[in-house]
Amino acid sequence: MHKKGKVALADVREEVAATVAERSISLSLRPDLRAIAELIRPGEKVLDLGCGDGTLLCYLRDELGVTGRGIELSEEGVLACVRRGLSVRQGNLHEGLGDYPDGSFDTVILSQTLPYLNDPAFILREMLRVGRRAIVSFANWGYWRCRLSLLFTGHMPVAPDHPQPWYVPPRIRPLTVRDFGDFCRERGIRITAEIYLAGARRISARRYKNLLATTAIFELK
Q1: What local confidence, expressed as pLDDT, does residue 12 receive?
Q2: 43's torsion region: left (phi>0), alpha (psi -120 to 50) or beta?
Q3: Is residue 7 domain-resident?
Q4: N- to C-terminal Cα distance for the chain?
Q5: The pTM is what?
Q6: In the chain, N or C: fewer CB atoms in 10 Å?
Q7: Which residues touch 5 (CB under 8 Å, ≥6 apart)?
């Protein structure tokens, strides 16, 4: 084989390996995190609130070249982020956002954390103050299985895609897609993009989303 042919073959193998590795990383993300990542543009400045072990921030840094920051309450989460080489501070969201000037970030993310907040209106205002836009995801208690579970068992259902008993701290405040839509309209927050998942599958945003979606993702401005 000619030298040029060997070089070309090596380049192809390297490209294939990189593609496989990227797909493997993407598939390791939760479905809602994959959907959020698709809304992020390369090179953005991103703040992830309640970033957990930094899985999303790590993916955005490595695959999209974002400049990422995070705020996480748990010590375990912060340590996991530090091991990944991420810039994350430990603290409460109600206090931590006050340290950032207006317009510090392109995007501020709040993934699966909204139901745990004592004052969601304040946090969303702060997100839209320090960021050009906000992306929020949460489990939808309007899902049809949740409705039937409450109707037939008389027990409070756990959140689809994010199960946690009602008594386990931190305590969850259930909400539905319709609840969040009303909340945003009452406060003049524009919903500029919507993604709805049923497990890992995308569903249409046009009809029955509050009935069929297990998880909702919103872009806000």
Answers
A1: 43
A2: left
A3: no
A4: 57
A5: 0.83
A6: N
A7: none
132 or 99, greater pLDDT? 132
For residue range 46-91, what is the model confidence (pLDDT) as tens digits?
Answer: 999 999 999 999 999 999 999 999 999 999 999 999 999 999 999 8
Average pLDDT over residues 113-121: 92
* Contacts of residue 148, Cβ cutoff 8 Å, sequence gap at least 6: none
Q: How far apart are CA 148 and CA 160, in angstroms?
A: 13
- In order, the DSSP letters of 69-129 are EEEES-HHHHHHHHHTT-EEEES-HHHHGGGSPTT-EEEEEEES-GGG-S-HHHHHHHHHH
What single-letter DSSP state applies at residue 2? -
Distances (CA, A) of 97 to 70, 72, 73, 82, 202: 11, 12, 13, 20, 32
Instruction: For residue 16, tell me if it sits in a domain.
Output: no
- Which pLDDT does position 7 carry in this prediction? 46
In the DSSP assignment, the letter for residue 40 is: P
* Number of domains forming the structure of the chain: 1
